[in-house]
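To: structure desk
From: M.T.
Subject: fold request, one chain
Message: Could you run this one when you get a chance? Sequence is below, nothing fancy, just the single chain.
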Amino acid sequence: MQAEIYLAASWLAQAATPSPSPTSTVPDDDQVSPGLPGFLTMFALAVVVILLARGMTKRIRRVKARGEAEEAGRAEAEEARRAKAEEPGTEKKAQPEPGAEEPGAEKKTRPEPGTTERQDE
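Reply: Done. Structure tokens follow.
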């Protein structure tokens, strides 16, 4: 009986291990590289990032220049208004009280804060 148990155990042990032992299919770390597809992907990403940065820089400069031009226009208009008010021979018109409307005058509306009125010249 021991012989039969021994034969059964050896038969199970042989069945559990495959006859050709599998070789490792994982390549060495020295042999692994991204290759051409990886290079092309990274190159395309770099080009896209550069183009986006250039476009953003152009827009920021344009907005900054437009703001400076508007500020200069406002300062110029304020100077002209002050110079006109200080001219000799011009009488200052009495300022109406705030909230008081002149009869027959149209009510002017102010633009919303943050918006600008365009002046066509």
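Reply (cont.): Residues 10 and 16 are 10 Å apart (CA to CA). Let me know if you need anything else for the meeting.
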